[in-house]
Amino acid sequence: MREQEEAPAQEGRRISTREAAELLGVKPETVYAYVSRGRLSSRSNPGGRGSTFDPKEVEALARRNRREPAGSSPAGGTLSVRTRITLIDRDRYYFRGVDATELAARHSYEEVAEWLWTGVLRPGATFTAPEASVAVARRAVDSLPEHTGPTDRLRVAAVAAATADPLRFDLSEEAVLGTARTLIPTLVAALPPQRHDHRDDGPLAHRLWARLSGREASTAALHALDTALGLLVDHDLAASTLAVRVAASARAHAYAAVSAGLGVLEGPLHGAASGLAHRMLLDVLDRGTAAPVISDELRAGRRVPGLGHRLYPGEDPRARALFALLEEIPDAAPALAAARDVVATTARHVPLHANVDLALAVLTASSGMHASAGETIFAVARTAGWIAHILEEYGEAPLRMRPSGHYVGERPPQPLPEQ
To answer: Is 104 exposed, middle or buried (0-12, 13-18, 19+ CB in 10 A)?
Structure first.
């Protein structure tokens, strides 16, 4: 196979962007990034559309990329980390080689998490939180101001739970898996319940629902929430996941690494994005049409929330899977129609597709949940993915996530500053 990849190209023949991307094993966008950074030269197509490349130059770059170690920057500035957890390929994504949307549709969140951690499916897997861990986490969360956001509550709960675990510094795989199976239900149990008849046992999705909505959940709604958790469990090296791996690279214990991820997740471009989409959908429902709402967003210079994803040229597969389930829930019909109105209205000018934040907003808006509920769902779901990355990073050389800074300040020696 290697001999085929490095076979000499036909003399004088140039190749297209797509062919160059295939030779390099990257997306076409990365090929253009190589060109912009001077790592690859291109020539405009005589027809005026697209570019062509010298196959010998492309093959030489492919050989250099193969020699670069993990953690280096083959895309000329984009950090690359070898992982066996999640693959994103075109408009699909996979957990350990298995289609993630099919896995989440057929198995519970706990079963998906176990698959991600171990590569072994454990039918009927359940997570149980120790009473001592829950008690200390609840006390810490209850002491926070009433206006505290969901990610802050979860971060405080994670830190509190860590203090109740004297074995948290044991970084062996068995110990970290034990932490994972108790930390996730502890995070859920530490959140204030919205129903008096809430339970702290049974499937995690059922327990989480009682923390997000005061309504009684239908079987279809619970299945949608459980599937949403499974769909969101991991998504390769998102910003929060990278933060988790940096912490794990420094050999921070699992609670501390998860806390690092929660700190990044709170950003409006990451875990909090569904809250913006939730508020937009309520505005569309209130005004009866998406057009004025979209107009207001654009006039204010904001992106329309819930649309587009840098990794998917088409519709986000997570959104597609979740929308299909929401169609089976009668209460979700108005919010679902509002979401489709948003997509159709925006598509008149910009060809953007729905992403998972919009689908998550339909679920939360139609279930009587607060706008921040999507952020909570995202954080709880992604904690399992972070654990998988923590385990993987513990198996690598420590402190490898230490890029070198490119200093652009004044060259030394400079005089001491005057007082």
So the answer is: buried
